[in-house]
Amino acid sequence: MLAHLALLALAASQSPLPVLPPSQSASRPPSSAPAARASSPAPAPRQSRPPAPVTKPSSPPTAAAPAGKPSPSPRPAPVSPPPRPSPAPATPVPAAPRLAPKPSPPASPAPRPAPKQSPPPASPAPPQPSSNSTPSTSSTLGQLSPSFYAQSCPGVELAVRDVVRSASLLDPSIPGKLVRLVFHDCFVEGCDASVLIQGNGTERTDPANLSLGGFNVIDAAKRLLEVVCPATVSCSDIIVLAARDAVVFTGGPAVPVTLGRRDGLVSLASNVRRNIIDTGFSVDAMAASFTAKGLTLDDLVTLSGGHTIGSAHCNTFRERFQVANGSMTPVDGSMNTDYANELIRACSANGTVAAGTAVDCDAGSASVFDNRYFANLLDGRGLLRTDAVLVQNATTRAKVAEFAQSQDGFFASWAESYARLTTLGVKTGADGEIRRTCSSVNG
């Protein structure tokens, strides 16, 4: 009994391994099945497996035979269905990826409209007007930049500098004329080259501007730049560069300037008088004019230092003298007596006052941009009344004395004030135009 139970336990432990014993146990009695399993079941499969691998490489059907060993007839039927279900799952599996991309296209179209909308803001009108002057984005933002022409006309500053140098060598009065020109341009309609336009009723026809000069220098620089960089550099930028270079040529500081101005379309003589400072103005009147432009008293004193170069005609300071019977008598007690006599001799000719005669604005140093002008003011040698009154006001006199003691201080202040002056009322971006010829608006 114990032996029988041991055989049953042995058979139970070995039954999961072989596949054939279940079919034999169905046909044989339980008593004989364990005996057979105990005596030969383990060796029998081991002997039958070796021949099977030999037949497997010989022909593919033997590969299906192991699956059909338990019941050859039923197993072939399940063998054919597996291929059919396998294609069926195979089709859904590819279908899932196909459906996944289909939802994703909607996700990708969503970003695609965004790029399509972003180019339009980058390519609308702002870049197009700026392309006439420069590709730089600064014109689109309506801002000035020192590197405005870095890509569109990199040689602009060198070209203007060469023209100014050549013209100044031929005519020493050119630097002073260019400095005066930038003042008269920027104080009326802003720095937009409106003072260059010729024609009836333009700024250029006002009596205050009849004595202006340096137009030929601006025109020469413009012609050169139109060859090198057509329709790119504005006349207003040329004026600012030319005046800056005139100061450098005469020994003044080389100051950086921002560029990107466009030329104005309006030039009216009626706008001149209410904006330009008259030679008979008091400090208060000049201060009011400067304040209206956003400039300070320090700017007034500093920019008046531009008179350290250049000259003025005798009729511009006639109010400081009494003219009678062809003679001149000083009426301004603040004027140095010796200096007054020098002016009388310079402006009197054949018993008359030669109103058109030019006199140096800065006695003894009119060809050099330095601080001698301020020392002359303290000594009563200011040529124009607007010069002389700067030492009659406590605030402006203190600044005059400071600059008379320090040329470096004057130069540093000049750089700052010139930057403010040359950004008055500028036109950028879509405002104004780039003139082909500085003396007339584009037709």
What is the topological layout?
Layout: H1 2-14, H2 21-27, H3 32-39, H4 43-48, H5 51-58, H6 61-68, H7 76-79, H8 87-90, H9 92-99, H10 104-107, H11 113-117, H12 119-122, H13 127-133, H14 156-170, H15 174-186, H16 215-228, H17 235-249, H18 283-292, H19 297-304, E1 311-313, E2 321-324, E3 327-330, H20 337-347, E4 348-349, E5 352-353, E6 358-360, H21 372-378, H22 385-388, H23 394-405, H24 407-421
Antiparallel strand pairs: 1-6, 2-3, 4-5
Features:
24 helices; Peroxidase, domain 2; two-stranded antiparallel sheet; 443 residues; 4% strand
The overall strand count is 6
Given as residue ranges, the uncertain stretches (5+ residues, pLDDT < 50) are 1-141
> SSE order, as H and E?
HHHHHHHHHHHHHHHHHHHEEEHEEEHHHH
Kindly state the percentage of residues in helix: 40-55%
Strand order of the largest sheet: 1-6
Largest sheet: 2 strands, antiparallel
Structural class by sheet pairing and helices: mainly alpha
Judging from the principal axes of the Cα atoms, what is the shape? globular
Radius of gyration: 50 Å
Q: Tell me the fraction of residues in β-strands, as a range.
A: under 5%
Number of helices: 24
CATH topology of the domain at 283-421: Peroxidase, domain 2
The CATH superfamily title of the domain at 283-421? Peroxidase, domain 2
InterPro entries: Haem_peroxidase, Haem_peroxidase_sf, Peroxidase_pln, Peroxidases_heam-ligand_BS, Secretory_peroxidase
EC number: 1.11.1.7
Keywords: Calcium, Disulfide bond, Heme, Hydrogen peroxide, Iron, Metal-binding, Oxidoreductase, Peroxidase, Pyrrolidone carboxylic acid
Cofactor: heme b; Ca(2+)
